[in-house]
Amino acid sequence: MTEVNTVGNRIDTILTDLLARIRGVILDHRVTEDEYAAAKQYLISVGEAGEWPLLADVFLGSTVERLHSDALDVDGAIEGPFYIPGAPELTAPYVMPMREGEGGDVLVFTGSVAGKDGQPIDGAEIDMWQCDSRGTYAGIPYPDGRELPPQWNLRGRFRTDGSGDFEVRTILPVPYEIPKAGPTGALLRAAGWHPFRPAHLHARVSAPGYHQLITQLYFEGDPYIESDIVNGVKAPLICKLDKRDGPGGRAEFTTSYDFRLAAV
Ligand code: MBD
Ligand code: FE
Predict the structure, then answer these.
(1) What are the b/e assignments for 66-82, b being 16+ CB within 10 Å?
(2) pTM of the full predicted structure?
(3) pLDDT tens digits for range 23-49
(4) Distance in angstroms (rounded) separating the CA atoms of residues 165 and 49
(5) Which of 197, 218, 224, 260 is catalytic?
(6) Which end of the chain, C or N, has fewer beta carbons within 10 A?
(7) Which ligand ends up closest to the CA of 64?
């Protein structure tokens, strides 16, 4: 027999309010029988495509996350549907796992991890993941037949040094287009909304004695900063990009961010 996970024990309270609000929308907009039937069919298709995690994170994740971050007074951001635990542990000097000749601009990302009191944290773990220069995450099934990167491409774990600092080389992520081939993309199209998120790096930052920080970093000037389809951008998470000449005269970008963790 199926049982519901009653974590929080508020099913009665929340379900009562949720149903009241949905009924209110139906009444306010005079939803028709046909629209109701189409909505049910749509919900079925989301399940069949395995897109519930994506759809939920696109529309609701950032709201849940906001409450969590505000309670801890940290600059967190939505985890999103594409985190995969167990990424390779890198050895210094840190370079994110990538293919020979990985496309895109080089990004040198430096920064630090400290407590909110400014106390640097030695050996904090940063578990970072991002899309490649074509906007594809490794290890995720895309139904549109695109070429998939190797399993751990642009996913890796590394640590701060004795001063709480880190430096990692990677490539600059690009604005991310939510997978369009399935029901989530179809809904955005039907509503006339663009499917983009601004370019972002994802990170889970952890250290003993601190709450794990799950966040994302964005880049100044990104065309989708103001219209992120998942509503996940917060001003303190927007980083400045600088351009410099790297090895062999190849241009590379640099950016910096200081993660601040809440003590337990
Ligand atoms: C993503 O890459 C993402 O970060 C979020 C939050 C939702 C969908 C795709
Ligand atoms: Fe993402």
Answers:
(1) beebeebebbbbbbbbb
(2) 0.91
(3) 999 999 999 999 999 999 999 999 999
(4) 42
(5) 197
(6) N
(7) 1
